[in-house]
Amino acid sequence: MRRAPALSFLFGTVFLDMLGLGLIVPIVPALMSAVTRDAAAAVFWSGLLGSIYGLLQFAVSPLLGRLSDRYGRRPVLLASLACLGLDWLAHAISPSPWTLLVFHALAGACAGTKTVVNAYIADVTEAESRARAYGLIGSAFGLGFVAGPTIGGLLGAVDVRLPFFAAATLSFANVAYGWFVLPESRPGDRTTPLTLRTANPVGAVTVVLRRPVLGRLAYARLCADVARMTHQSTWTFFLTYQFAWSTVQIGVVLAAGALVGAVFQARAVGPIVRRLGDRRAAVAGSLLGVAALAGTAFVSVPWMLYVLQAVGVLGSVGGPAAQSWISRHVRADEQGIVQGTLTGIGAVAETVVPVTAGLAFGWSLTYASPGLVFVGAAAFAAVSTLLLAATPDRRTVPIE
Q1: CATH number of domain containing 350
Q2: Among candidates 43, 67, 47, which has minimal Cα distance to 55?
Q3: Cα atoms found within 13 Å of the Cα of residue 69, Cβ hemisphere only
Q4: How far is CA 70 from CA 38, 127, 193, 326, 377, in A?
Q5: What does the pLDDT look like over 205-240, one tens digit per residue?
Q6: Measured between alpha carbons, how far is 163 from 153 in angstroms, rounded to an integer?
Q7: Which contacts (CB < 8 Å, 24+ apart) does range 301-307 have?
Q8: What is the C-alpha to C-alpha distance for residues 296 and 243, in angstroms, rounded to an integer?
């Protein structure tokens, strides 16, 4: 196994994925307004596109994971990247929101990048090095988040559809690069069962949650996802309301936090997890996340916000540690389906939480404190911490 080219490709894949997403984030409202020719319709269709993507990702992710267990990681990953490129290309040329809906639904059904990347890393790294590899992937995520919106805003100033052409080009270039340099980490194994019970989302989630250790870790991941999405969905609105910050100030703080977090995950996560172990590092990181969220709820001056951001960066060690911990409790022939199931669970949170968190934040502005929504996020993070702390670090029975 040529690990260095493979891990480099995975790092590049996640970076380009986030870069492509970041390219189009500032431009989506303008594109949807141009396509629908109505501001209210643009908001409706933007929400519908996001919902259909999340719904289909939930429905199909366990199947994609199982296909990667049975037929190999490489074909599923390259097909996912190709579908994403088609989706961006459709955004660039489509004159109709219905066309966008079809292609975005296809992209959601093929959204196996995260699933396969996590399974691939488990295939090619030793258990003691796995958290470092997942930290590098988190670093790629952060770097793409920093670069994407900036480049997208510049391209969008030239033409509203240009960022989508750029995102499609990056996706197709990634497919071509992977075709030539990405080795297969798990050759096809036709003896791996492919049944309706494990390939449908409800059945896959049920099987995973029933396993004593893996089930607790999955519930902890769900609570952490709810907390994370609540923070992401409301943080910029909170800063605008609490400190009257401009979009430039918010953008600089976001970019700086993402850049520092990327460096921390790339350089510090591996040594920290080697010293503490997966379980203790996951619990410690989750506790720091609780502190950052709870502190944000009561922040009153901007300098406190920077301190809490630093605490949140330190807490980011918990994600790679928990991911490494999960992978150690999964057999080689079931990494794909477990990672796909976790991706599907996360897709539910990413679809539902932004809407509910936005409604809760709006209610709190009228009837309570604007920081109340972060108290709720901290509560979910605290439940995640308790689940991690209560979970024994032992092997569990395989999926059948």
Answers
A1: 1.20.1250.20
A2: 47
A3: 27
A4: 46, 22, 8, 20, 38
A5: 888 888 888 999 999 999 999 999 899 888 888 888
A6: 8
A7: 302/243, 305/239, 305/253
A8: 13
Residue span of the structural domain in which 389 resides: 212-400
Measure the CA–CA gap between 329 and 279, rounded to whole angstroms: 12
In a domain, 67, yes or no: yes
What does the pLDDT look like over 372-382, one tens digit per residue? Answer: 999 999 999 99
In a domain, 206, yes or no: no
Could you give the count of Cα atoms lying within 13 Å of 225 in the half-sphere of its Cβ? 19
**Helix ranges, 159-301 (H):** 162-181, 196-199, 201-210, 212-243, 247-267, 269-276, 278-297
| Mean predicted confidence (pLDDT) in 305-332 | 92
Cα angle 322-343-362, degrees, rounded to a multiple of 5:
95
For the whole model, what pTM was predicted?
0.86
Question: Angle at CA 173, nearest 5°, toward 172 and 175?
Answer: 65
- The reply to whether 136 and 217 lie within a common domain is no
Q: How many alpha carbons lie under 13 Å from residue 12 in its C-beta half-sphere? A: 17
Whole-angstrom distance, CA of residue 92 vs CA of residue 163:
8
Which residue among 159, 181, 203 closes a domain? 181
Helix (H, G, I), strand (E, B) or coil at 300: coil
- Residue 393 CA to residue 326 CA, distance in Å, equals 10
Examine the domain organization and report whether 102 and 3 are in the same domain: yes
